[in-house]
Amino acid sequence: MALVERTVGEIADVIRDCGPQGEQACLLIGAGVSFSAGIGLAGDFVDRIEKRYTNVYDRACREAPEGEKPGYAQCMAALPPAKQVELIRADIDGAKINWAHIGIARLEKSEIINAILTTNFDPLASRACAIFHRFPAIYDLAGLRDEQDNQISFDRSFVKGSAIFHLHGQHTGFALLNTEEKLNDQAERIKPVLDAVMKGRPVIIAGYSGENDPLIDKIAELAPFNHGLYWVCHSDSNPAKSVQEKLLALENCFVVKEKPADVFFTELANKLDLDPPSFLANPFEHMSDILAGLRPYADLEDLGDPDLLAAAQKQLSDADSAQNDQDNLAEELSKLMAKGDFAEAHKLYPGPDASLSETTKDLSAWAAIMVGTALSDQAKTKQGDGADALFARAAEKFAVALEIKPDKHEAFNNWGAALLEQANTKKGGEADALFAQAGEKFAAALEIKPDQHVAPNNWGTALSDQAKTKQGDEADALFARAAEKFAVALEIKPDKHEAFNNWGSALSDQAKTKQGDEADALFAQAGEKFAAALEIKPDKHEAFNNWGAALLEQANTKKGGEANTLFAQAAEKFAAALEIKPDNHEALSNWGNALSDQAKTKQGSEADALFAQAAEKFAAALEIKPDQHEALSNWGTALLDQAKTKQGGEADMLFAQAGEKFAAAEELLPGSSLYNQACLASLMGEPATASELVEQSFSLAVDWPGCEHVCSDPDFAKIRTTPEFKAAMKRCGCSC
């Protein structure tokens, strides 16, 4: 289904006028909001139960529906309540307030929101509000009594001011609701609360999956959402299918994509021009405000004791005055950067001739780095001259940061990362020059701070990416240097799972350039690196996906039973990635590729069954991410391969379907399916069209596979000797 998207800015426009005199907004937050604070998600708790309570987990597996693994609710239900609490409290006791909670507290302080519903057991939202000297009422709905109709007795008029409602209990409470039966019962019990708190006001839902949760049904019953309901997604993937069908299909329900909770709430507060946290903008003033809420001890009993409170207040006042006299610019920079307004903060930089304090220099350098990074990120969404112009502007900002503070290793690292991104959009000497420049920046970062692990990991990725553009000994030398950099990163930080994952990908890419035992040895080493990444971080779905892709590549070098075994292992890895992250559209697309490639090794109905399964995976990937041009292009390729096994009208139908997929992919990203379209045109006996499309693919360099591939591609067998194709190959620099 087509979801209606909105931006953070559009939400800000809608709720900007919310306040005590009107309808204040309501938040519903889930586990995703507290994840960066150090509290695990549902899958993390399942993993812990599996490892720590193996027999309990085995029982949960036996009781799960056939063919399914037990989820969070089933695993929790298998444990005694005391053990459930022990697991949850272990995370909460060590958690820290994150920037999502700070953003929520800023919204609450402004009185734009006055109701926070949470499925979390942690107190982090209330603790964040307390930092702002705000103390909303706290209601534990797991402990409120029921009326005779099995619903909570609730009267909103008794709630004065803002409030936080713990829908499933608190970690310090007597009841934590986390089993399927209890959650079903609770969804019915809290209907009066949902009706009183959510109905007739803007609703924002963040950090909450809602998958197979009965709470979604009760929220949907509150429709119509005339003030708007906004579902915030942490990634570019769609919410769970059940959420889409039951809730987001309703009128005035929208999605906001690619906004992790920390980013979303900070950005929303900044879009609303809310005051930055005073503890960042002016920590002395913040502490003075806290002390102002204390009653002087002398007011209670005059014992002639020294007034320690007044003395502390004077110390803070003196320190604040001294700082203001010394550096007003630092305070202004702090305020702007606390609001996330790095561009405005950067504009305050007075230039290299100004005399600045070390604090101001550091803040000014960071403002320049953040603006440069934003420009680099924007460049990645563009092509050609537009992208290059943004990369150039990013470089200027990184250079300014280093002009302010020459030892700012973060500026060198981010500059190198931007050059790497740009290099991957180029080819030949232009790409090599950018790869070299990226390496220089990473080297400079390490010269300043030899014990930082980010730069060598990025450098390894740059060398690996460059190696993929080379052949033979030149490629091998670059892959070897990449391995050295990953090893350096891991020597500095042995638990850096990102380095293991990147190293595994590099080894897999190198394996693709080899044959026989040499290739197999590299594929095996790649598997070891992916396994090491997963040992450190078992929920690293990227490692499972990359491992599956490596096994797929290896499978394509084998035949018969050996190939089938590797195809099966690849499928297991993709399935594991999807178990961790069900909306992992890349894993689904890769799984579709695996099934399609395996289908090419079969015949008749066996092949058709695999092609059909591949189509299901591509369709599932596109349901999650409708603009995933890779899935469309790969689906088209699968249809093209299947068409080659057919004749007559059946073949024509499949060729036509392949053309539709390629056209859809091309519409999303020009150049992404030109080569595939050229193959299709050649197979359809259209040499002029095929030759023109090949040239366009070479020119745009988005899906260009290289001369060696084109010259040996059997799809061009019918037209390879035609004048049109020969001329096109010559213009592309290919000697076929």
Q: Would you kindly provide a brief summary of this structure?
A:
The protein is built from 36 helices and 7 strands. It has a 7-stranded parallel beta sheet with strand order 3-4-2-1-5-6-7.
3D structure, described in words:
The mean pLDDT is 91. Helix 7 packs across helix 8, helix 27 (541-555) runs parallel beside helix 29 and helix 29 packs parallel to helix 31. It is built from 36 helices and seven strands. With 736 residues, the protein is mainly α. Helices cover 63% and strands 4% of the residues. Strand 5 (203-206), helix 11 and strand 6 (229-232) form a beta-alpha-beta unit. A seven-stranded parallel sheet has the order 3-4-2-1-5-6-7.
Counting H and I runs of at least 4 residues, what is the number of helices? Answer: 36
Structural class comes to mainly alpha
Number of strands: 7
What is the subunit arrangement here? single chain
Strand content: under 5%
Query: Taking all residues together, what is the mean pLDDT?
Result: 91
In terms of per-residue confidence, which ranges show pLDDT below 50 for 5 or more consecutive residues? none
